[in-house]
Write a structure and sequence with these properties.
six-stranded mixed beta sheet; binds zinc ion; 5 helices; alpha/beta; seven-stranded mixed beta sheet
């Protein structure tokens, strides 16, 4: 069985509301668990960590809606080892942040943890992945994972950019943020809207687009997410608005 499963643990951007928790996604592949970002949704991870496999947690950037869940690490019963992978300065930032007085210090967590920093620790990732810079207010990195003949792409906080299209090329599943409402862009604080997310999927010939990271203030109910899905559909047929708990087998 070489199926990959994608499970949406948190699909909000910015803060938690009745529509969901902030962003976190589990990708369950044959030999590894991969977690994309550590928003509050990461607290659900324990429900899915059944097998004795290493966990690779990719942090796209240091905005708190992607990192605040790191204080939940002591709750997890990780049977193997956790790798936390971040952009430049990951070692410095995580050692500062996952530490008193903010949270339980790394050294007191009861399973092994290693911090990896991109791009210098690329060779320590045991599966095929490519990481490229997104277009955001601070440095943010997207990821393309190729495993068992499947391509899983995650484009977190970004405006439309060539790197997002490149990472998404022929992806079996493309997870993009959709923080902005239809028709809205702000060059000073770049994010995707339903149209630009769908445009990336279309240009990249992706097979499926899942919209996540809906801004909590803009998308304050599911009707608004459904409407984003309809708008994305007009540009890219196989688009869905994700919700916490959704699972996709690819
Ligand atoms: Zn964000
Ligand atoms: Zn951000």
């Amino acid at each position: 069985m070489n199926n990959c499963k994608v499970i949406l643990l948190g699909t909000n951007g910015w803060y938690d509301t009745a529509t969901g928790n902030t962003i976190s996604i589990l990708v369950d592949i044959p030999n590894y668990y991969i977690v994309l970002d550590a928003g509050n949704g990461i607290y659900k991870l324990d429900n899915y960590l059944i097998e004795d496999k290493p966990v690779y947690l990719f942090i796209s950037h240091y905005h708190l809606d992607h990192t605040v869940g790191l204080h939940i690490l002591p709750k997890f019963k990780i049977k193997n080892k956790l790798f936390i992978i971040g952009p430049n300065n990951a070692k410095k930032f995580f050692k500062f942040f996952i530490e008193a007085p903010f949270t339980t210090p790394l050294k007191d967590i009861k399973y092994p943890i290693e911090i990896l920093e991109m791009p210098i620790d690329y060779q320590k990732i045991p599966f095929d992945c490519e990481i490229l810079a997104m277009r955001h207010s601070i440095y943010c990195q997207g990821i393309r994972i190729e495993v068992s003949g499947k391509v899983i792409t995650y484009c977190p906080d970004t405006g439309y950019c060539e790197n997002a299209v490149k990472l998404s090329k022929n992806a079996d599943i493309l997870l993009t943020e959709c923080a902005n409402p239809s028709g809205y862009t702000n060059p000073n604080w770049p994010h995707l809207n339903p149209e630009t997310a769908a445009q990336i999927a279309k240009e990249a010939s992706a097979k499926k687009l899942v919209l996540v990271h809906f801004d909590a203030e803009v998308y304050d109910n599911f009707d608004k997410r459904n409407n984003a899905e309809k708008i994305a559909h007009q540009i890219f047929d196989n688009a869905v608005a994700g919700r916490d708990g959704d699972e996709f087998i690819i």
